[in-house]
Design goal:
mainly alpha, single chain, Four Helix Bundle (Hemerythrin (Met), subunit A)
């Protein structure tokens, strides 16, 4: 090893050492440029992968929100069927409980980030307000020991609500 260094520093070999130094310098510069190019290419690929991952995550969130909304629609529809059954047989306390379940499902459905259109969202808010008012009147009648009266109009409205929920469900199922 000492002989190599001696050869390297021998003034008689300075032309060869200079030539080798130039060649190695040029190779080092080329490798540096290639390394920077590879780094830039890898950064570009990483940026593309990051964008693709962000899009995939957004799609997954959208689908999960749609499935959550569909679940809440199913829950609300089931509660509506229970309400209708309880109203028909004049089982008022159970009807109030079913209305509570229906209202909770509607609140979640309204607030969930899903692809429900603004028109449907407004319809759901109106349904919630009407159902809440009727449920409150029904509960007040029960507490006063009175019969709520004719509930056939409410049963008819409830069927219309179920139709609206079915339309929203179809909209969401098509979007997911």
């Amino acid at each position: 090893m000492a002989e190599f260094f001696a050869w390297l520093f021998d003034p008689a070999n300075s032309v060869r050492v200079g030539a080798w130094g130039l060649i190695l310098g040029i190779l080092g510069t080329i490798l540096t440029v290639v390394g920077f190019a590879l780094t830039g290419w890898q950064l570009w690929r990483t940026a593309n992968a990051t964008r693709a991952a962000a899009i995939a995550v957004a799609n997954i969130k959208s689908r999960v929100a749609a499935y959550d909304a569909i679940f809440e629609i199913s829950r609300a529809t089931s509660a509506m069927k229970e309400i209708e059954r309880h109203l028909k047989v004049h089982n008022w306390p159970e009807a109030v409980d079913s209305y509570t379940e229906f209202r909770h499902a509607l609140v979640r459905l309204i607030e969930l980030p899903s692809q429900i259109t603004d028109d449907f969202r407004e319809s759901l808010k109106n349904i919630h307000a009407i159902a809440s008012a009727f449920s409150d009147r029904l509960e007040l009648s029960i507490s006063k020991g009175k019969m709520p009266g004719d509930v056939s109009r409410s049963i008819s409205e409830n069927r219309r609500y179920v139709e609206i929920l079915a339309r929203i469900s179809i909209l969401l199922e098509g979007a997911s």
